[in-house]
């Protein structure tokens, strides 16, 4: 064996960076849970002792945590004063949950896969699935925290407006179903933007539905928003003006059956809004940093979840437009188009 030293050095350097990122992820979750980043949001220098006092935590742990943040370039360190501070940019992505680049939720989601690794590994051996409900709570909470900022930034201001005539319908008053709603973030965001419309969120995971109901009450929209436990191919109601599926179609075992049920549930002039992770149609095109995130998540979450359901189609999080269109048309839809996109999302419109 003849090794190319330059290639070997590059690989080892990549390994060091990757390992540091993996280990750093837990410190991000700790910072999010304890409010450490938010306690530094003002951008003023703070010592470990001061931050510990501010957050009710132990100074020695905080010293090590701040050192890890500085080594990861997630905060700045001033050796002259032994202090640490967040720049405006760091504070923006680490403390503001309303912006589309809020990052800690992604780490909460990613960290859950390490805890669930034994079940995922066993699924590799047996070919069985790991149902969404079988994962630890961190996955559900992390999924909401990861996706909600993007929904806040895009859902009502861009995605719905890109659909033909749908924004005006919701302004006047429409019936909307949100399939695979999880903790209900997308449903509630729409309800707040369209006060004359009514919304129902469906998810087969009963624990998530309980969280969603409480969130609707807390947001003051429970009079127009309900949440029900139901699978994507068996949810109730007909005559919906808009049916939405956000980042969930590829997780379904039988997305064609779900598409057919959506087709039956829509009003004659209704619209199906489908949001999926951004992907090209070939593996070669998806070998990018974004593709790396989605393929890794799909390996540990999306594919096992689909394999656990009837049909087990396992589209994966990088299904791409061609495969999504195939599923939609197989469900009975005659019209399908890409309405808009972001660096992380493909947004599709389907009509009967």
- As for the CATH topology of the largest domain, it is Rossmann fold
- The class by helix and strand makeup works out as alpha/beta
The parts where pLDDT drops under 50 for at least 5 residues are: none
Order of helices and strands: HHHEEHHHHHEHEHEEHEHHEE
> What kind of sheet is the major sheet?
7 strands, mixed
Distance between the termini: 60 Å
Strand order of the largest sheet: 5-4-3-6-7-9-8
Mean pLDDT, to the nearest integer, reads 96
Number of helices: 13
Share of β-strand residues: 15-25%
**How many individual β-strands?**
9
What does this structure look like?
The protein has 2 domains: 5-96, Winged helix-like DNA-binding domain superfamily/Winged helix DNA-binding domain (Arc Repressor Mutant, subunit A, Orthogonal Bundle); 105-351, Vaccinia Virus protein VP39 (Rossmann fold, 3-Layer(aba) Sandwich). With 352 residues, the chain is an alpha/beta fold. The protein has a 7-stranded mixed β-sheet with strand order 5-4-3-6-7-9-8, with helices on both faces. The protein has helices at 5-34, 48-55, 59-71, 88-95, 104-115, 117-126, 137-159, 166-172, 185-193, 206-219, 255-265, 289-307, 320-330, and strands spanning 76-78, 83-85, 175-179, 198-203, 225-229, 240-246, 266-277, 335-341, 345-351. 50% of the residues lie in helices and 16% in strands. The protein is globular, with a radius of gyration of 22 Å.
